[in-house]
Amino acid sequence: MDCDRETPATRERSIWAFGGGKGGTGKTFIVANLAILLARQGSRVIAFDGDLGGANLHTALGMGRPTRSISDFTRGRVARLEEVLCPTAYDNLKVIPGAADDFGGANPNYALKSKLCKHLRQLDCDFLLIDLGAGTGYNVVDLFLEADVGAVVVTPEPSAVELAYRFTRAAVYRRLKLLAGLPRYEQIVDEAAAESVAGNVIRLVEGALERIAAFDRGAAERIEGELYQRPIKLFVNMIRDQRDQRLGAQMCDVLNKFYGPPCEGLGALPYDERVPLAERRGEPFVLAYGSSDTAAQFAVALQRMLAVSRDVAEGTQLRLI
Ligand SMILES: Nc1ncnc2c1ncn2[C@@H]1O[C@H](COP(=O)(O)OP(=O)(O)OP(=O)(O)O)[C@@H](O)[C@H]1O
Ligand SMILES: [Mg+2]
């Protein structure tokens, strides 16, 4: 699902996707609050609810049931994605609500996904933030790979950590297949994946590239070059103690050692009992508890985001994976 791309020098907007495999890790919460903070500091922001089967970004932004949604676009009721943009209560921030009741829309076909990502790239904004659903299926991973920067959101629960690794593996694998291009090379990638040890993605990639190089060394070098140019950003949420605090660095070590693309921390938020209180009142957390430590950590993540986006725009850092 490769869209026509602008070169980094001419690209105006920075597209960020937040995924991670496990449900309930805080992807929607993080996207909603970062979107509000970005908009408040003057960036023109669009938040896209890419959770095609479980949309709730509008709720996290304190909105009622939207009158427009991505279904209007995927069902062909409107021709352009701009037509489903909804205003929010916040200056500079618009939202593309996800489909709440559109079961077919949860599994768009390839052509529809290509059309969607083309329109996403053409949206007029400084930042497009994509809130992904849980899971490691192609519909989730493909949207993740369309972003300029992908953030993996994880909590300290073992199942969340496990699924964050699995999600990253799925993203590298899918990216490898997309870069492979020719059906013969895609089959080689599948064979290498079938033979590889689950946690060692680097070995999978090496195995596939060795075999592709036997046919075409230039193709293997091109794929390798593009595959590892992009970093992974890790966002650790719901930290409760000092052990949890070390999780981000530990996971980055593992990802760097076994997964390939350089990994670094983007954000780290404590578990905060006030989060559900703000949610029940329909108030975004960073506004309801703006002077809390948690809000301060959001501000730190925001600064990192801005720095990474600048690097991406200047071409110092290319896209994820
Ligand atoms: N740091 C935090 N402290 C306390 N509660 C939190 C924190 N982050 C998120 N939550 C709460 O956890 C719940 C799950 O968060 P959220 O819906 O953002 O997860 P998600 O990853 O988007 O889930 P899904 O994959 O199902 O879309 C929400 O009720 C949210 O308010
Ligand atoms: Mg969500």
Count of alpha and pi helical runs: 14
CATH topology call:
Rossmann fold
* Shape label: globular
**Separation of the first and last Cα atoms:** 15 Å
Overall helicity: 40-55%
User: Which sequence of SSEs, written as H and E, runs from N to C?
Assistant: EHEHHEEHEHEHHHHEHHEHHH
Question: How do the strands line up in the largest sheet?
Answer: 3-4-2-5-1-6-7-8
Structural class: alpha/beta
Number of strands: 8
| Name given to the CATH homologous superfamily | P-loop containing nucleotide triphosphate hydrolases
Rg calculated over all Cα atoms: 19 Å
Largest sheet: 8 strands, mixed
Number of domains: 1
CATH class: Alpha Beta
Can you walk through the features of this model?
49% of the residues lie in helices and 14% in strands. Strand 3 and strand 4 form a beta hairpin. It has one domain: 3-Layer(aba) Sandwich (Rossmann fold), CATH 3.40.50. The N terminus is likely disordered. Helix 6 runs antiparallel to helix 9 and helix 7 packs antiparallel against helix 8. The chain starts with 13 loop residues before the first strand and ends in a 7-residue tail after the last helix. It contains 14 helices and eight strands. Strands 3-4-2-5-1-6-7-8 form an eight-stranded mixed beta sheet, sandwiched between helices. The structure holds adenosine-5'-triphosphate and magnesium ion. The site of magnesium ion has 5 residues, from helix 1.
